[in-house]
Amino acid sequence: YVSSSNAGGSVSGNGRHSSPAGCGGSGGGLSGGLTQPAGWQSLLSFTILFLAWLAGFSSRLFAVIRFESIIHEFDPWFNYRSTHHLSTNGFYEFLNWFDERAWYPLGRIVGGTVYPGLMVTAGLIHYILNLLHVTVHIRDVCVFLAPVFSGLTAVSTFLLTRELWNQGAGLLAACFIAIVPGYISRSVAGSFDNEGIAIFALQFTYYLWVKSVKTGSVFWTIGCCLSYFYMVSAWGGYVFIINLIPLHVFVLLLMQRFSRRLYIAYSTFYIVGLVLSMQIPFVGFQPIRTSEHMAAAGVFALLQAYAFLQYLKDRLTRQEFQTLFFLGVSLAAGVVFLTLTKPSLPPLLRYAKIHIPIIASVSEHQPTTWVSFFFDLHILVCTFPAGLWFCIKNINDERVFVALYAISAVYFAGVMVRLMLTLTPVVCMLSAIAFSSVFEHYLGDDMKRENPIKQHPFYPVKNSSVYSKLIVTMLMLMLLMMFAVHCTWVTSNAYSSPSVVLASYNHDGSRNILDDFREAYYWLRQNTDEHARVMSWWDYGYQIAGMANRTTLVDNNTWNNSHIALVGKAMSSNESAAYEIMKSLDVDYVLIIFGGVIGYSGDDINKFLWMVRIAEGEHPKDIRESDYFTPQGEFRVDKAGSPTLLNCLMYKMSYYRFGEMQLDFRTPPGFDRTRNAEIGNKDIRLKHLEEAFTSEHWLVRIYRVKKQENRQALDHKLRNIAAKQKYTSKKVLPSRFH
Amino acid sequence: MWRAGAVSLALIACFFRASLCAEGLVNEDVKRTLDLSSHLAKITAEIQLANHGASRVNGFTLALEAELAPHLAFIGASVKGEEEEDESLELKETTVHGQSGKFFEAQLPSSLAPGAKLRVKVETVFSHVLKPFPTHITQAERQLVVFQGNHYLYSPYPTRSQTTRVRLASKTVESYTKLGNPTKSDETVEYGPFKDVPPFSQDAMKIHYENNTPFLSISSITRTVEVSHWGNIAVEETIDLRHTGAYLKGPFSRYDYQRQSDSGISSVKSFKTILPASAQDVYYRDEIGNISTSHLQVLDDSVEVEIRPRFPLFGGWKTHYIVGYNLPSYEYLYNLGDQYALKLRLVDHVYDDQVIDQLTVKLILPEGARNIHMDTPYPITRSQDELHYTYLDTFGRPVLVATKNNLVEQHIQDVVVHYTFNKILMLQEPLLVVGAFYILFFTVIIYVRLDFSITKDPAAEVRMKVASITEQVLTLVNKRLGLYRHMDEVVNRYKQTRDTGALNSGRKTLEAEHRTLSNDISALQARLKSEGSDLAEKVGEIQKLDNQLKDLVCRSCQEAERLVAGKVKKDTYIDSDKTLSGKRQELVSRIDSLLDAL
């Protein structure tokens, strides 16, 4: 029911924008019976935007309807936890928050190491709602924040595209961005992450920037700065803005498109934006120190110089000298810009340094495949070059901007899957322009001719090409429809899993919920000491802190590589060596994920090589990756596996007592379903650990680290010194020393 | 001096009262049953009371041992009548001078004549008196508990004869006290009969036996009931649950737990909570979301929820969850005019043989409820009333807060809350919403209609004026074109009906309307001119073209007249009509192109 209703909503949203595109083309034409076409037009666009919002909102609710209103994945759990802290303790307490539950024994100064925009937004909404006595739980605010903001993104995309092209294209773009999977992947309900609100801030900042370049008004520029400030507070991707806008200015200068408007807009933006961005504690003095912000400063200086030369040019007569001077300066500035941007372009890609295994181990930092372009953008990826071509053909100041936006975003998206997100809005806008132009061409004329035909029935109909137009229009509508269907399908199948709760389907279609994660986390929360320290691989740090409310050693904020390497070393060493590490880290419990019983592929054994690699990076003497492979270079858990692997802590904890377990009659006991192998070490005994809890499907296993036992009481007799001294020779040792 | 006198007077009075009750009463025959098969100790005593004194007796005293008294959860006494029906007695706590323990005075419905006899049934329930021993067991071990009590009935009266029967949870008994050579068969131990036991006699009974029943207890429960006069009562229970049996020692092995049926035999996998039959929208969740391991079964007279905690509860483990549901208010809320009475359970079923260590009840009444009065079935501590704000509240809903410790199943009884509520207040919330929307729309109207800019832009103003005038011109011209089309229809009709009158009147209206429209357009043209817009010229051109067009229309009209009058032949008419319509088409398209340019 849900899926069909959503598809319907999206399709109707798509189907409807063909008419305003036509309307935009013939805007202000014969008005028939309508008294005020402008009024109808705004009502229509309002309705379409509202429907786009609604379609975007509801297609993000798959997870909520299938499962429940729950925070997804890993990072959102941290965001949720800090928002909860903010809403219970207030803003200042949040800024000063020292989280002693993370990175034991170091702790984390949360207020100074997060982009607080997301938490403040959610906290503010929660505060206002509660002020109005709308008693919503902060969790629900967090869950539904991203879908609500996707509507705002649609509106700001509409505004930006309207500035670039026309209203019809704007409405199309709004409908595209509302349902495009590339954006939904980061903004489904429950995905409470920075990107959810940052894309709105990004688009809105760009809209205001285009507006200020167009008008040269300080008002719009200040608006742009405030929006930029919000973006800085929300996401590290603000660096994209602070490099793209100077690039735009620079290219405009090169194209001899300098104007007073541009001067006012950029000078104001740079100064005010700089000051505002430095107000965020996590950003601090970076904007004047780091290389990724230097391009903005360089362009600012260049613009001043250019404006000064322009001023001089009006006063001086030596024209040739002037041009020569201009050429020299702009060349120099260009060189400066390029050298500065070269190291500054990768700031977004800083993650992509392959040689740091911890960065490379994250799946979203992998390069994008061709398939995922089509998967996330569908038909838009094919049509957006056409839109780009339209823009370049009819170039003006703001279209230069969108062209640069498109080119840089394509580059970034190609480098890293995660940055597909920045490409999505511009693809939506340019595709909308392409579609809108096609519709204008094939529908707009017809409509113009149709009106007079209706009014003057005695006119002969001369529409020879009406069939070709019909075919083209039908084709386009069909593409849009397929796009909507694809979007809904992708959203439903790929991006709507909370990953905290798993579901499996039986043969009859009924659903089994595997709630092992929460089972184990809740056990930790209820039945361990409040200050117990839990060691796990860093992936689960945020979830343990959020759901189990226990101290973790490492978490998803992977700022301290050596600490993570230490945990990796403990996991990949043998038990007694690991015990020494765990003792030194005061570990009380060890939590691992084991998928061998149900065939869950994202478990710790499958991630294990990354632990080894990260540990090896810091402790090359103790851990060697090659030890964990067979002589043939295979990673195997069965009898042929390397003995180091078969005796390391992770292996032992994963397969403890698993060797006795026979899952079905076709397989031997101890058959690992994830790796399809009978495990090699079935007789696992633990000396320093004991099983504390294992969840129902063995997905989460928790071990208790035993405290050191009291030393064995020595069996000894009381010494009788006087008697022995008398009778024993000094050359012979007393027998009890033997 | 007088003060000490008062104290001693009070003591005397007390002693007098106690002795008054005791005087002459004898427990003729006592049958005690100690039910230790669950985690509660349920002690029932059937007593045959006889009045051996000289005067009538109005009441009697019940006594509890000092060791057990702090664990008392429930005590009830009833008189066994000749018929089946028991009559429960009202109990009042009292003291007996010189004796330790807890004492209750029961008032008889009718006084007992000398020599008369009476059968009384006394029911007591004690919680947390079965102590696990050993206190820590491993997963494979069974749970053993110790009960320490009294072989005799603790009573202020002498007892002639009594038996004590102990029901255990299993056949396995480690040890039991052997007073009077008791007989043990299967799960019961029978003591006695003991003859002529003096008042207040105690003899320690100790039974150590296997008891694997779930030792679940609710360490705290908060029951929130929110009444809405729109037809709904929302109930939510926040429960802290703990396994109070022997602590789990050593590891918890999931393998053993799954593969061996007797592994963790004393642990709690799941239990059933019975909700009222009309309960709807039941939810079962905790801080981190919905607990998916639960089942709901709707029966005829109740709704059963199979509560399965996220993890099995072993000794010493605890969990925390929330169960909530909605009830239709017509089953629980009664009213007479503005007087309302809410009658529902003060505490409800959570699991069989439940023990609640601490109960907090919060009753949220509708905003504006006054004269609140609460009738509880048993004494309960009332805290300060609170205010609760939720959707669309302005001055808050009154919340009644009450707490009580140590409750068992026998406490599942109804509470009645009386209050008055003015029905007009029901309108407050809808009006609030209406008002809010009204203000919103009004602000939008004000914002759109009025000009808030601080600078005046004359050029933009002129542009807007011109735009509005051209808008009007457009509509007028279109209307005028419409007139011609109408005239064509009139002419066509005339050609068929040959009704000259209709044609003439049609022509007249055309003339009149055309004149007004043209005048309007030229007035607008003048205004355009005064605004300095070059569009005025285009409008003038339209006017010129229109004159020609009108002439053509008149001509075609005349042609038609001539055709009807037979002055021209049909062929020539068709030819001339064709040329005329050709010219008209041309003119209309020129006007259209001009209009498009506007």
TrEMBL record, chain A:
Its EC number is 2.4.99.18. The chain crosses the membrane at residues 43-65, 109-129, 141-161, 167-185, 235-255, 262-282, 294-312, 324-341, 370-392, 399-417, 423-443, 464-485. GO terms for molecular function: dolichyl-diphosphooligosaccharide-protein glycotransferase activity; metal ion binding. GO terms for cellular component: oligosaccharyltransferase complex. It catalyses: a di-trans,poly-cis-dolichyl diphosphooligosaccharide + L-asparaginyl-[protein] = N(4)-(oligosaccharide-(1->4)-N-acetyl-beta-D-glucosaminyl-(1->4)-N-acetyl-beta-D-glucosaminyl)-L-asparaginyl-[protein] + a di-trans,poly-cis-dolichyl diphosphate + H(+). It holds the Pfam family STT3. InterPro entries: Oligo_trans_STT3, STT3-PglB_core, STT3_N. Keywords: Endoplasmic reticulum, Glycoprotein, Glycosyltransferase, Magnesium, Manganese, Membrane, Metal-binding, Transferase, Transmembrane, Transmembrane helix. This is Dolichyl-diphosphooligosaccharide--protein glycosyltransferase subunit STT3B. It comes from Cyprinus carpio carpio.
TrEMBL record, chain B:
This is Dolichyl-diphosphooligosaccharide--protein glycosyltransferase subunit 1. One of its GO terms (cellular component) is oligosaccharyltransferase complex. Belongs to the OST1 family. Keywords: Coiled coil, Endoplasmic reticulum, Membrane, Signal, Transmembrane, Transmembrane helix. Subunit of the oligosaccharyl transferase (OST) complex that catalyzes the initial transfer of a defined glycan (Glc(3)Man(9)GlcNAc(2) in eukaryotes) from the lipid carrier dolichol-pyrophosphate to an asparagine residue within an Asn-X-Ser/Thr consensus motif in nascent polypeptide chains, the first step in protein N-glycosylation. N-glycosylation occurs cotranslationally and the complex associates with the Sec61 complex at the channel-forming translocon complex that mediates protein translocation across the endoplasmic reticulum (ER). All subunits are required for a maximal enzyme activity. Pfam families: Ribophorin_I (PF04597). PANTHER family: DOLICHYL-DIPHOSPHOOLIGOSACCHARIDE--PROTEIN GLYCOSYLTRANSFERASE SUBUNIT 1, RIBOPHORIN I. GO terms for biological process: protein N-linked glycosylation via asparagine. InterPro entries: Ribophorin_I. Component of the oligosaccharyltransferase (OST) complex. OST exists in two different complex forms which contain common core subunits RPN1, RPN2, OST48, OST4, DAD1 and TMEM258, either STT3A or STT3B as catalytic subunits, and form-specific accessory subunits. STT3A complex assembly occurs through the formation of 3 subcomplexes. Subcomplex 1 contains RPN1 and TMEM258, subcomplex 2 contains the STT3A-specific subunits STT3A, DC2/OSTC, and KCP2 as well as the core subunit OST4, and subcomplex 3 contains RPN2, DAD1, and OST48. Its main location: endoplasmic reticulum. Residues 1-21 form the signal peptide. Pathway: Protein modification; protein glycosylation. Residues 507-555 form a coiled coil. It is a single-pass type I membrane protein. It comes from Cyprinus carpio carpio. The chain crosses the membrane at residues 431-450. It comes from the Eukaryota. It is found in: Endoplasmic reticulum membrane.
